[in-house]
From TrEMBL:
Gene3D superfamilies: RNA Cap, Translation Initiation Factor Eif4e. Keywords: Initiation factor, Membrane, Protein biosynthesis, RNA-binding, Transmembrane, Transmembrane helix. InterPro entries: TIF_eIF4e-like (IPR023398), TIF_eIF_4E (IPR001040), TIF_eIF_4E_CS (IPR019770). The chain crosses the membrane at residues 6-21, 49-66. PANTHER family: EUKARYOTIC TRANSLATION INITIATION FACTOR 4E RELATED (PTHR11960), EUKARYOTIC TRANSLATION INITIATION FACTOR 4E-RELATED (PTHR11960:SF74). One of its GO terms (molecular function) is translation initiation factor activity. Coiled coil: none annotated. Belongs to the eukaryotic initiation factor 4E family. This is Eukaryotic translation initiation factor 4E-1A. One of its GO terms (cellular component) is eukaryotic translation initiation factor 4F complex.
Protein backbone atom coordinates (compact mmCIF):
# COMPACT_ATOMS: atom_id res chain seq x y z
CA UNK A 1 0.00 0.00 0.00
CA UNK A 2 2.86 2.37 0.82
CA UNK A 3 4.29 1.77 -2.65
CA UNK A 4 1.04 3.08 -4.15
CA UNK A 5 1.16 6.18 -1.96
CA UNK A 6 4.78 6.78 -2.89
CA UNK A 7 4.15 6.43 -6.63
CA UNK A 8 1.25 8.87 -6.45
CA UNK A 9 3.40 11.28 -4.49
CA UNK A 10 6.18 11.09 -7.10
CA UNK A 11 3.68 11.73 -9.89
CA UNK A 12 2.22 14.76 -8.11
CA UNK A 13 5.69 16.08 -7.33
CA UNK A 14 6.82 15.88 -10.96
CA UNK A 15 3.57 17.44 -12.18
CA UNK A 16 3.60 20.31 -9.71
CA UNK A 17 7.33 20.94 -10.01
CA UNK A 18 6.96 22.15 -13.57
CA UNK A 19 4.12 24.48 -12.62
CA UNK A 20 6.56 26.13 -10.20
CA UNK A 21 4.23 28.32 -8.15
CA UNK A 22 4.18 29.11 -4.46
CA UNK A 23 0.77 27.49 -4.00
CA UNK A 24 1.71 24.20 -5.62
CA UNK A 25 4.99 24.04 -3.72
CA UNK A 26 3.03 24.49 -0.49
CA UNK A 27 0.76 21.61 -1.51
CA UNK A 28 3.81 19.42 -2.12
CA UNK A 29 5.15 20.19 1.36
CA UNK A 30 1.78 19.36 2.91
CA UNK A 31 1.48 16.10 0.97
CA UNK A 32 5.04 15.21 1.93
CA UNK A 33 4.10 15.55 5.60
CA UNK A 34 1.00 13.38 5.11
CA UNK A 35 3.01 10.63 3.39
CA UNK A 36 5.63 10.57 6.15
CA UNK A 37 2.98 10.38 8.85
CA UNK A 38 1.39 7.41 7.10
CA UNK A 39 4.71 5.61 6.75
CA UNK A 40 6.24 6.33 10.16
CA UNK A 41 3.30 5.85 12.51
CA UNK A 42 1.62 3.21 10.37
CA UNK A 43 -1.79 4.85 10.08
CA UNK A 44 -4.36 2.75 8.29
CA UNK A 45 -5.73 5.24 5.78
CA UNK A 46 -8.69 4.24 3.66
CA UNK A 47 -7.52 4.09 0.01
CA UNK A 48 -10.80 5.66 -1.11
CA UNK A 49 -10.14 8.70 1.07
CA UNK A 50 -6.57 8.99 -0.17
CA UNK A 51 -7.57 8.89 -3.83
CA UNK A 52 -10.41 11.35 -3.17
CA UNK A 53 -7.88 13.70 -1.58
CA UNK A 54 -5.61 13.19 -4.59
CA UNK A 55 -8.50 13.99 -6.97
CA UNK A 56 -9.39 17.20 -5.11
CA UNK A 57 -5.75 18.24 -5.10
CA UNK A 58 -5.37 17.82 -8.85
CA UNK A 59 -8.76 19.47 -9.53
CA UNK A 60 -7.95 22.55 -7.46
CA UNK A 61 -4.59 23.01 -9.16
CA UNK A 62 -6.07 22.63 -12.63
CA UNK A 63 -8.85 25.12 -11.84
CA UNK A 64 -6.34 27.66 -10.55
CA UNK A 65 -4.38 27.44 -13.81
CA UNK A 66 -7.34 27.75 -16.18
CA UNK A 67 -8.50 31.11 -17.48
CA UNK A 68 -11.40 32.43 -15.40
CA UNK A 69 -14.77 32.52 -17.13
CA UNK A 70 -14.97 36.29 -16.69
CA UNK A 71 -11.76 36.68 -18.71
CA UNK A 72 -12.96 34.69 -21.73
CA UNK A 73 -13.85 36.40 -25.00
CA UNK A 74 -17.49 36.69 -25.99
CA UNK A 75 -18.68 33.56 -27.77
CA UNK A 76 -16.53 31.19 -25.69
CA UNK A 77 -17.87 28.37 -23.52
CA UNK A 78 -16.66 26.08 -20.75
CA UNK A 79 -18.37 22.77 -20.06
CA UNK A 80 -17.97 19.85 -17.67
CA UNK A 81 -19.85 16.64 -18.40
CA UNK A 82 -19.80 13.08 -17.17
CA UNK A 83 -17.60 10.63 -19.02
CA UNK A 84 -19.15 9.60 -22.32
CA UNK A 85 -21.62 12.50 -22.53
CA UNK A 86 -21.04 15.18 -25.15
CA UNK A 87 -22.07 18.80 -24.38
CA UNK A 88 -24.71 18.85 -27.10
CA UNK A 89 -28.47 18.34 -27.22
CA UNK A 90 -28.17 15.45 -29.68
CA UNK A 91 -26.28 13.23 -27.25
CA UNK A 92 -28.30 10.17 -26.21
CA UNK A 93 -28.20 11.19 -22.53
CA UNK A 94 -29.17 14.80 -23.26
CA UNK A 95 -31.79 14.72 -26.00
CA UNK A 96 -34.73 14.05 -23.64
CA UNK A 97 -33.34 16.36 -20.99
CA UNK A 98 -33.19 20.03 -20.19
CA UNK A 99 -31.37 22.62 -18.13
CA UNK A 100 -31.63 24.82 -15.08
CA UNK A 101 -30.60 28.19 -16.48
CA UNK A 102 -28.95 31.10 -14.68
CA UNK A 103 -28.82 34.31 -16.74
CA UNK A 104 -26.44 37.03 -15.62
CA UNK A 105 -26.39 40.70 -16.54
CA UNK A 106 -23.27 42.42 -17.85
CA UNK A 107 -22.66 43.88 -14.39
CA UNK A 108 -22.69 40.40 -12.84
CA UNK A 109 -19.77 39.15 -14.93
CA UNK A 110 -17.21 40.57 -12.52
CA UNK A 111 -19.32 40.24 -9.38
CA UNK A 112 -20.89 36.78 -9.68
CA UNK A 113 -19.88 34.80 -12.79
CA UNK A 114 -16.69 33.15 -11.52
CA UNK A 115 -18.20 32.39 -8.11
CA UNK A 116 -21.34 30.89 -9.65
CA UNK A 117 -19.35 28.75 -12.10
CA UNK A 118 -17.00 27.46 -9.40
CA UNK A 119 -19.95 26.56 -7.16
CA UNK A 120 -21.58 24.80 -10.11
CA UNK A 121 -18.44 22.70 -10.63
CA UNK A 122 -18.33 21.85 -6.93
CA UNK A 123 -21.97 20.75 -7.06
CA UNK A 124 -21.17 18.37 -9.91
CA UNK A 125 -17.93 16.98 -8.51
CA UNK A 126 -19.34 16.62 -5.00
CA UNK A 127 -22.64 15.09 -6.20
CA UNK A 128 -24.52 17.72 -4.22
CA UNK A 129 -27.93 16.60 -5.44
CA UNK A 130 -28.09 13.46 -3.29
CA UNK A 131 -30.01 10.55 -4.85
CA UNK A 132 -30.77 12.67 -7.92
CA UNK A 133 -27.13 13.29 -8.85
CA UNK A 134 -27.39 10.50 -11.43
CA UNK A 135 -29.88 12.67 -13.34
CA UNK A 136 -27.27 15.39 -13.84
CA UNK A 137 -25.36 15.20 -17.13
CA UNK A 138 -23.08 18.21 -16.78
CA UNK A 139 -22.87 21.98 -16.82
CA UNK A 140 -22.08 24.77 -19.28
CA UNK A 141 -21.09 28.42 -18.98
CA UNK A 142 -21.64 30.63 -22.04
CA UNK A 143 -19.89 33.99 -22.35
CA UNK A 144 -22.01 36.33 -24.44
CA UNK A 145 -22.08 40.07 -25.13
CA UNK A 146 -25.73 40.50 -24.13
CA UNK A 147 -25.36 38.49 -20.94
CA UNK A 148 -23.64 35.34 -19.69
CA UNK A 149 -25.40 32.07 -18.91
CA UNK A 150 -24.69 29.11 -16.65
CA UNK A 151 -26.74 25.93 -16.90
CA UNK A 152 -26.91 22.51 -15.27
CA UNK A 153 -28.13 19.87 -17.72
CA UNK A 154 -30.25 16.90 -16.68
CA UNK A 155 -31.13 13.75 -18.57
CA UNK A 156 -34.96 13.59 -18.41
CA UNK A 157 -37.25 16.63 -18.41
CA UNK A 158 -40.19 14.46 -17.31
CA UNK A 159 -38.56 13.44 -14.02
CA UNK A 160 -40.17 16.24 -12.03
CA UNK A 161 -39.05 15.11 -8.57
CA UNK A 162 -35.39 14.99 -9.59
CA UNK A 163 -35.51 18.25 -11.52
CA UNK A 164 -37.20 20.24 -8.76
CA UNK A 165 -34.85 18.85 -6.11
CA UNK A 166 -31.81 19.72 -8.22
CA UNK A 167 -33.18 23.21 -8.82
CA UNK A 168 -33.78 23.89 -5.12
CA UNK A 169 -30.33 22.64 -4.09
CA UNK A 170 -28.63 24.55 -6.90
CA UNK A 171 -30.39 27.80 -6.03
CA UNK A 172 -29.36 27.50 -2.38
CA UNK A 173 -25.76 26.63 -3.24
CA UNK A 174 -25.46 29.69 -5.48
CA UNK A 175 -26.96 31.91 -2.81
CA UNK A 176 -29.67 33.19 -5.14
CA UNK A 177 -32.26 35.22 -3.15
CA UNK A 178 -35.58 33.44 -2.63
CA UNK A 179 -37.48 36.20 -4.46
CA UNK A 180 -35.40 35.60 -7.62
CA UNK A 181 -36.91 32.91 -9.86
CA UNK A 182 -34.79 30.52 -11.91
CA UNK A 183 -36.31 28.33 -14.61
CA UNK A 184 -35.90 24.88 -16.12
CA UNK A 185 -36.26 24.44 -19.88
CA UNK A 186 -36.29 21.29 -21.99
CA UNK A 187 -33.77 21.08 -24.82
CA UNK A 188 -36.59 20.18 -27.21
CA UNK A 189 -38.44 23.42 -26.41
CA UNK A 190 -35.24 25.45 -26.72
CA UNK A 191 -34.47 23.91 -30.12
CA UNK A 192 -37.94 24.66 -31.50
CA UNK A 193 -38.63 28.05 -29.88
CA UNK A 194 -40.13 30.68 -32.17
CA UNK A 195 -39.07 33.74 -30.18
CA UNK A 196 -36.05 34.82 -28.18
CA UNK A 197 -37.10 33.04 -24.99
CA UNK A 198 -38.06 29.49 -24.05
CA UNK A 199 -41.02 28.65 -21.82
CA UNK A 200 -40.04 27.29 -18.41
CA UNK A 201 -41.31 23.82 -17.50
CA UNK A 202 -40.41 24.28 -13.83
CA UNK A 203 -39.36 27.21 -11.66
CA UNK A 204 -37.92 27.51 -8.15
Amino acid sequence: MYIIYTLIYIYIYIYFFFLNTERTRALIIFLNIVIHIIVHINLKVCPTFFFFFFFLLISSVLYNHIQLSSNLMSGCDYSLFKDGIEPMWEDERNKRGGRWLITLSKQQRRADLDRFWLETLLCLVGEAFDDHSDDVCGAVVNIRTKGDKIAIWTTDFENKDAIVHIGHVYKVRLGVPSKVIIGYQSHADTATKSGSTTKNKFVV
